Prior knowledge:
The structure is a single chain. By secondary structure, this protein is mainly β. It has helices at residues 150-154, 379-392, 400-422, and strands at residues 7-12, 20-24, 30-34, 45-47, 51-55, 61-66, 77-78, 85-88, 94-99, 102-107, 113-117, 124-129, 135-140, 145-149, 168-170, 177-182, 190-195, 199-204, 210-215, 220-225, 231-236, 241-245, 263-265, 272-277, 283-288, 292-297, 302-308, 313-319, 351-352, 355-356. It is globular. It starts with 6 loop residues before the first strand and ends with a helix. Mean pLDDT is 82; it is low at 157-161, 250-258 and 349-377.
Amino acid sequence: MAAPIEVVLTCDLSGQMWNTCVWDLNSGTVLKSYSGGISTSKSLNFVGRDYLLSASPSKSVLNLWSLHKREQQQVKMICPGVVNCLTVSPDGSYCVAAISEKIYIWQFSTGNLLAVVSRHYQKVTCLSFTDDGSHFVSGGEDNIIIVWSMASLLQKSNTYQQSIEPLHIWSQHSLPITDVYCGTGFPHSRVVSTSLDQTCKLWDMASGELLQNFVFDVPLHSVVMDSAEYRLFVGGADGNILQLNLFSNPCKIDSDNKQETPDIFKGHSNKVTCLSVSMDGSRLVSGSHDNTARIWDVSSRQCVRTLKHKGPVSNAVIKVPPRKMFSALNKSGLPIKPFKRHVHVPATGSKVGNQTSRESVEIRTRHSFTSTNYTDPIEPLVELVKKNDNVYSQLPAENNQELQKVKKLNEELYTFTIKQLVQ
């Protein structure tokens, strides 16, 4: 079976038919399903190209599937408590999960609990990574949005999590945060947030400034932007989906002028809890507590497909499926270890007070190396090349033939080293 370009993944809170269902974005046909338990809202994620992960709304466990299988993996992902929401880094290396007001960070390859932070005063309701995985954003019932740096959370110097300062703390909302969405292009990305206070706010992550405040007449439960960040979609408590064109008027904060009347997608009869847009921006998928997920044509604002469920839809996302999702020949690659319940402390760590400090973790992003403890792995190779050149100069002349062979190998090693450094 040829893999489609994009698919729709949905979950509902009944669990009668399946936990997660995979639909064709264009035809609305069922392509595959994953059974076992149910998934809580804002918790469905791919782990790299090998696994599908979600959290249970009533148990302190995570649901884990290998993409080319339907049954759950034997690995039990036990957590310290019931997970409110979770997100996975774009490269599939880290899992960030919220348990009550605390945020836990695990590493998939080792299962180590790398950090636990607590800056929210009430339950965390939503989490979202930036496109390069260097930062993530959390929102909670305490009306606060916090931007976290992964490098700051995982670097060796921050042994005491209480001393970690977030990049930004935004407290302009007056009621609980319901959803956050990170755009593309960090460190110049924009963040959108929705709240029960009937406002949607647009933030600049680089400066931390509030760019725009949109006021509506209903509480909001979900938000998303298209890939070009030209259109903004928000889901309301009345079942309507509102579309705003971000570049139609100049951006002004709390302008006294009347705001542009938004375009409305009408069809749901209950609150819209999840939204997702296709890569080309032509399709919008929504999930609602009216037991349906809908596929919309953005240009005409017409519903082209209705995906019926047995219970309230908790997750509805558009994803590019890995090849192994539809091929049994592709076995799972990267192993995943069970999550540990205590912060990882290496045996060789240095003493800090009465505790042993955690080992430093290298964080690489597409834009920069943000870890202060980063050591270039190519540097030892350069030193080896220099050492070999000194040895060659001291060899006797009768070994000239062997010397030329070794010098050629050394030149090839040097060329490879330089290419790695440039990349």
